[in-house]
User: Fold this.
Amino acid sequence: MPATKRVLVVDDSETIRRSAEIFLRLTGLQVTLAVDGFDALAKIADHDPHLILVDIMMPKLDGYQLCQIVKQHPAYAHVPVVMLSSKDGVFDRARGRIAGSDQYLTKPFTRDGLLAAVNEQLKPASAA
Assistant:
């Protein structure tokens, strides 16, 4: 049986963090929560997540900056990052891609939308 996948949820909204945590834990994922980008950096080092879900608009260190730091670090560059944002403009999505994000999910997300994004990013690479 494969090891439990670890997901880090980074959002300054407790409602979003808790909703994501509930949805993800029900599917058997191990979930770690971070309240901002600086908190996330410590938890990335401690928990070595397989996937990071990060809010864009956060105080101090925003989601774009956090994503860039993760993607520039050799030990974590391979970890998929899904941006969470209430902004759904072309510019916001483009900026997320430039920062290195692997996917963009608009808030408020649905359980099915969140799980589809997570499953997409955690699926094993095809052997073909």
